[in-house]
Write a structure and sequence with these properties.
Elements (H helix, E strand, L loop, with lengths): L12 E8 L3 H11 L5 E4 L8 H4 L6 E5 L9 H6 L6 E3 H14 L6 E2 L4 E7 L4 E6 L4 E9 L21 E4 L14 E5 L3 H13 L2 E6 L5 E3 L7 H9 L1 H8 L21 H14 L2 H5 L9 H18 L3 H7 L12 E3 L2 H4 L5 E5 L5 E4 L3 E4 L2 E4 L2 E4 L8 H4 L2 E4 L5 H4 L18 E3 L12 H21 L4 E4 L1 H16 L29 H13 L5 E4 L7
Parallel strand pairs: 1-2, 1-8, 2-5, 6-19, 8-20, 9-18, 10-11, 10-18, 11-14, 12-13
Antiparallel strand pairs: 3-4, 6-7, 7-8, 15-16, 16-17, 21-22
Helix pairs in contact: 1-15, 10-11, 15-17
Bound molecules: ligand NA7.
Length: 549
């Protein structure tokens, strides 16, 4: 329970909108809501802005969506002027871009760094949110925008003995700013998701020896990164507004990939393999998964795409026992986040790299000198946990969100997250969520989803003001209808077959619920637009006595 007797050391700050998070979503929310003349402020736990791109500084950290796509679209001058040096942005480059945007649009003055929000309480009578920071500051605001990220709560597994380890250990999402030099060290990387797949080739090139502890093999495709081609850049920039509009008409919010027209099974094997080969050479995940209409809905079709990649792994990795361990067989390709890599599979041909199967012989404990598995001990100087995040709900689970009417978000979500359109939660008025559960965010070009969500939120607040209203809340019925729809869409695909962070499988005890909306950005945006144009069916809009002037 929040401490009612608490008296804040500093005066309470009064805002129209309090924003939790200073990443890509929080920053755009400042810009957009400020444009409505609202008093806004974002609270950011980090010592710098940038969210995901501030924290994830591990070697090789890079976006898996092409940089000309993975950028804000709200300012044409910005997208015309910014120069991306490579096909895919590195973490430092994306962070530089975010800082440029913050300066260019004067966003920094409304971001409070080093500030973690611990409690958020909606007072129904006052019709306002009170947020409390870790060090006791209070903020009051009519509206609250949760822009706290989807992959922002790093998780180190609860291994016995971790504190006894005499070497250094790191988590991919909490990487030291000064970097880590692994030269000459015996290193262990635990985890082979996107973070592990990106860092492993680079750590292997530095370390004396690298042991990769793999529980589940993941599919990875070559990124085919390289310097930005000037003609490609100028062509893309000339077409930018049209390309952004076209992207909004696609499931992934990414333009430039022709819509597939055929089932994988309608094509002769040779022709199908030629198509996969051309996608493999092209690089990128969307183009591969978009090769045929049914790769994510038909297991039989998917098997052809999965087997093509397994064969690539077998022909790349010389040691066939290692190749078989690296070839995923427990999930259809694309049903877990498809990794993009540079020389990932080739790395296992190095003499100083060993793959350790911790599925057949699990990690039992971390010892003073390394990792103990059921099959034996591995002596290490450094351990890297690329073990992922409490995805999608972690950041909100870490805030004590409740109302004076007795609603508690942790209880409301005990069986899995419930939202209407991924944007609001019944029983929690005036609290908006950006790209949370029930939103297509993580299955799309994330910045497009962020802009779409924030625009929708800004329009909703503007609508309330124009109608002399000051409260919006979804009905429980609309929420259940949306959650059922999200589940039904997921169940019509192959996604639920995988033990992914989309279903919370990596967090012991987390309810297994498919969290992202996989019906596509295009369908989702249409629905959101219809709701706004139709006067917000499914939401109750009202006016309340309020202490906010
Ligand atoms: P992921 O994709 O959640 O990957 C985490 C990896 O860590 C995955 O291979 C896990 O194996 C492994 N893991 C987790 N716990 C353990 C334990 N206890 N023992 C062994 N291995 C373990 O996180 P990432 O940071 O790579 O990527 C997150 C997203 O960021 C990514 O999808 C992109 O969207 C960007 P498991 O599969 O659970 O068996």
């Amino acid at each position: 329970m929040p401490d009612a007797s608490h008296s804040p050391a500093r005066p309470t700050r009064q805002l129209d909108v309090a924003i939790v998070g200073g990443g890509l979503a929080g920053l755009y929310a400042i810009h957009r809501l400020r444009g409505l003349g609202l008093k806004v402020r974002a609270y950011e736990a980090g010592s710098g802005i940038g969210g995901t791109w501030f924290w994830n500084r591990y070697p090789g950290a890079r976006c898996d969506v092409e940089s000309l796509e993975y950028s804000y679209s709200f300012s044409n001058e910005l997208q015309q002027e910014w120069k991306w040096p490579e096909r895919y942005g590195t973490q430092p480059e994306i962070l530089r871009y975010i800082n440029h945007v913050a300066d260019r649009f004067d966003l920094r003055r409304d971001v409070q760094l080093n500030t973690r929000i611990k409690v958020a309480t909606f007072d129904s009578k006052a019709n306002e949110w009170t947020l409390r920071t870790e060090d006791g500051e209070e903020i009051r605001a009519r509206y609250c925008v949760m822009a706290a990220g989807n992959l922002s709560t790093p998780r180190v597994p609860d291994f016995k003995g971790i504190q006894s380890f005499k070497g250094k250990w790191y988590h991919s999402g909490l990487w030291p700013h000064e970097g880590v030099d692994f030269t000459g060290l015996r290193v262990g990387v635990i985890g082979t998701g996107s973070s592990g797949v990106q860092m492993i080739p680079i750590i292997a090139s530095q370390a004396k020896h690298l042991h990769v502890f793999q529980r589940t093999a993941n599919f990875s495709l070559p990124a085919r990164n390289g310097p930005m081609e000037p003609e490609r850049e100028s062509r893309h920039k000339a077409e930018y507004p049209a390309r952004r509009a076209a992207a909004a008409e696609t499931p992934f919010a990414i333009a430039g990939h022709p819509k597939p027209t055929q089932s994988a099974l309608d094509v002769p094997t040779d022709e199908r393999n030629r198509a996969y080969e051309s996608k493999w050479q092209e690089g990128g995940s969307i183009s591969y998964l978009y090769a045929y209409t049914d790769l994510l809905v038909s297991k039989e079709s998917n098997d052809t795409a999965s087997e093509f990649v397994r064969n690539k792994i077998r022909s790349t990795v010389k040691d066939q026992k290692t190749a078989e361990l690296l070839a995923p067989k427990d999930h259809p390709i694309g049903t877990k986040r498809l990794c993009l890599d540079t020389n990932y599979y080739e790395t296992y041909n190095r003499d100083n790299v060993t793959l350790v199967d911790v599925r057949s012989a699990p990690i039992q404990e971390i010892t003073e000198t390394g990792v103990r598995t059921a099959a034996g001990d591995y002596e290490l100087d450094a351990i890297v946990f690329a073990t992922g995040f409490d995805a999608m709900t972690g950041a909100l689970r870490e805030i004590d969100v409740r109302t004076t009417e007795g609603a508690v978000l942790a209880d409301h979500w005990a069986g899995g997250p419930l939202t209407y359109l991924g944007l609001m939660v019944s029983g929690f008025p005036n609290m908006f969520v950006v790209t949370g559960p029930g939103s297509p965010g993580v299955k799309t070009q994330m910045i497009a989803s962020i802009e779409q969500h924030v625009d929708w939120i800004a329009d909703a607040i503007d609508h309330l003001h124009r109608h002399q209203l000051d409260r919006i809340a979804p009905s429980a019925d609309a929420e259940s209808e949306w959650v059922n729809h999200v589940n039904a869409v997921a169940d019509s695909t192959l996604y639920p077959l995988a033990n992914s962070w989309y279903v919370g499988a990596n967090i012991p005890g987390k309810p297994r619920v498919f969290m992202p909306y996989v019906g596509g950005f295009d369908r989702y945006k249409k629905r959101c637009d219809e709701v706004a144009a139709g006067g917000y069916p499914g939401f109750t809009l009202s006016r309340h006595e309020s202490v906010v002037a």
